[in-house]
C-alpha cells in the first residue's frame, strides 16, 4: 500500500499497479488503437486514391498521430484516467494527491509515452517502472501521476466506535428525519478513520460535522460533550431506531449500545462535564476516561419483621 496525503491532510492508502498489470493494460490499449488505425487506413486509402503521394503521406501521418497519440490522451482525459485496457485490468491513473487527472496530466503522459512506449517498444517504460518503488514510468514522473489498482480484495468494514456509556440513549428525542444520507456517510467515514487523522485536523472535522448535524436536527451540541462523542452517540441512536423499526420495540428498547466496546479514549476528554443524574453510572472499572454520575449508595435493607403467629404446623422456615 502507498500512502498519499491529500490537501486536507488525510492519508489515503492506495495500491500502486506493478509492471505486469500495467503492461497488460498497455497491450490491450495498443491492440484496440492498432485495430482502429488499420481499419481507418484502409478506408483512407480507398478515399484518397485520386490524390498524389505527398498528400497521402501527410494524411497517413496525421491519422497516426491522431489515433495513436491523441486517442489515448482524449480517452484518459474524458474517463479521468481509465482507458479501455485499464478498465479491463482494474487500474486507474490518479494524481500524486489521489485526485482525478486533467488534460495536462494526460497530455504529458501521452507525449512522453510516444518515446518510452512506441519508439522503444516499451523498454524504457519497463526499466523506469522496475526502478520506481511505486511502479511509475517517466510519463508519470513528469506528469505527477500514479497508476493504482481499483479492484482490491474486500476487507473488513471500518468499525464505528460506540459512544461513552453515559451518552447512551441521551439523544433519543432528536428529530433525525432532516439529516441527509450524505451527511450520515461523512460522519460514519470520519468515525471509522478518526484515529488515522492528525489530531488537530480530526478535531476540526469533528466540530464541523457536529455543527452540520446540529443544524439539521435543530438541537445544539450539549455543552462539554466532545464533538466526536456527540457524533458517535447520534449515529448510535440512528442505528437503534433502525433496529427497532426492523425487529420491533423489544429488540433495541432504550437505545442501548450497538456493538462492542471501542478503544479506550476514542473521543478525548470532556473537561468538567458531568452527565445527568438519571443516567446510570458505567460499571467499575470503566474503560472510558470520562467522569460518570456518582454512584447512589445502596439503601440498607430493613430487618425482616417476625412472622405473624399462627397455628403450629411443625414447619420451621429457613434462616
Spell out the key features of this protein:
319 residues, two-stranded antiparallel sheet, mainly alpha, single chain
What features would you describe in this structure?
The structure is a single chain. The protein has 319 residues and is mainly alpha-helical. It is built from nine helices and four strands; from the N terminus they run E-E-H-H-H-E-H-H-H-E-H-H-H. Helix 1 packs antiparallel against helix 2 (53-78) and helix 7 (181-193) crosses helix 9 (227-247).
Give the structure's gist in a few sentences.
A hairpin with a 5-residue loop joins strand 1 and strand 2. The relative contact order is 0.09. By secondary structure, this protein is mostly helical.
Question: What's the topology here?
Answer:
Layout lengths: L1 E4 L5 E4 L4 H29 L5 H26 L5 H6 L1 E5 L7 H17 L3 H9 L6 H6 L1 E5 L31 H13 L5 H19 L9 H21 L72
Helix pairs in contact: 1-2, 2-4, 7-8, 7-9, 8-9
* SS class: mainly alpha
Return Rg in Å.
33 Å
Number of helices: 9
Task: Count the beta strands.
Answer: 4
Q: Estimate the mean pLDDT confidence.
A: 74
Amino acid at each position: 500500500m502507498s500512502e498519499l496525503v491529500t490537501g486536507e491532510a488525510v492519508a489515503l492508502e492506495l495500491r500502486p499497479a506493478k509492471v505486469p498489470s500495467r503492461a497488460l493494460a498497455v497491450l490491450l490499449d495498443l491492440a484496440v488503437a492498432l485495430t482502429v488505425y488499420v481499419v481507418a487506413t484502409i478506408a483512407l486509402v480507398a478515399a484518397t486514391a485520386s490524390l498524389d503521394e505527398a498528400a497521402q503521406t501527410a494524411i497517413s501521418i496525421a491519422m497516426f498521430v491522431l489515433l495513436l497519440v491523441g486517442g489515448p490522451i482524449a480517452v484518459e482525459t474524458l474517463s479521468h484516467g481509465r482507458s479501455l485496457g485499464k478498465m479491463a485490468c482494474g487500474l486507474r491513473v490518479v494524481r500524486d494527491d489521489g485526485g482525478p487527472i486533467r488534460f495536462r496530466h494526460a497530455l504529458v503522459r501521452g507525449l512522453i509515452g510516444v518515446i518510452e512506449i512506441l519508439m522503444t517498444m516499451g523498454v524504457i517504460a519497463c526499466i523506469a517502472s522496475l526502478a520506481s518503488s511505486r511502479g511509475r514510468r517517466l510519463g508519470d514522473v513528469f506528469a505527477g501521476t500514479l497508476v493504482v489498482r481499483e479492484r482490491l480484495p474486500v476487507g473488513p468494514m471500518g468499525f464505528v466506535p460506540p459512544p461513552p456509556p453515559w451518552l447512551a440513549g441521551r439523544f433519543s428525542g432528536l428529530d433525525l428525519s432532516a439529516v441527509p444520507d450524505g451527511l450520515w456517510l461523512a460522519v460514519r467515514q470520519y468515525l471509522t478513520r478518526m484515529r488515522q487523522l492528525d489530531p488537530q485536523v480530526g478535531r476540526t472535522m469533528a466540530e464541523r460535522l457536529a455543527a452540520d448535524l446540529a443544524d439539521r436536527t435543530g438541537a445544539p451540541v450539549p455543552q462539554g460533550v466532545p464533538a466526536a462523542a456527540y457524533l458517535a452517540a447520534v449515529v448510535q441512536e440512528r442505528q437503534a431506531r433502525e433496529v427497532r423499526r426492523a425487529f420491533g420495540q423489544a429488540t433495541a428498547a432504550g437505545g442501548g449500545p450497538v456493538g462492542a466496546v471501542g478503544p479506550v479514549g476514542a473521543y478525548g476528554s470532556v473537561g468538567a462535564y458531568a452527565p445527568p443524574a438519571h443516567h446510570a453510572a458505567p460499571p467499575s472499572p470503566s474503560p472510558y476516561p470520562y467522569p460518570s454520575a456518582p454512584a447512589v449508595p445502596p439503601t440498607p435493607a430493613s430487618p425482616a419483621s417476625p412472622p405473624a403467629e399462627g397455628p403450629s404446623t411443625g414447619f420451621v422456615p429457613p434462616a
